[in-house]
Description:
By secondary structure, the chain is α/β, with parallel strands linked by helices. The protein has a single domain, classed as Vaccinia Virus protein VP39 (Rossmann fold), CATH 3.40.50. 28% of the residues lie in helices and 31% in strands.
Amino acid sequence: MDLVGTKILDLFAGFGSLGYEALSRGASEVCFVDRSVRSLKSLRGTAEELDVTSRVRIVKMDVVQFVKSEKNTYDLVFCDPPYNWRGYRSMIREIFRSSLLAENGMLLIEHSNRYVFEDEQHYAFHKDYGMTRVSFFSFADSMNGRSGGHAKEDTL
């Protein structure tokens, strides 16, 4: 994936490894969202250490509230919530309802491989890494005849 010049959103950013990796691969800017004071302090320190503070925005906010209120558009959205989180499906749908994701953008969600999202309208594919799964979603896949979007709760 070519990240040069892309705008990245890192939700549940933690210490920012996904966002900072994107910057190292040419992303133009990254917005990190987390509400952990420890994570935010680490994100600020890393931005200073890497001398990328002008390309980084750090937001202390609940991720769900951020998604509902953010007005910027991003090319790539990383979402890495805690594995016991139950809001995956509502998060996917809210991101695609909002203007958060660019038309050609992609949403990546890291989660337990016990969760399956193949029935979601914008599902593209997934990759497994042991017990971890990364599911990919895009507008393009909903326009290419994928169907789904059943209104059901996350199941294990």
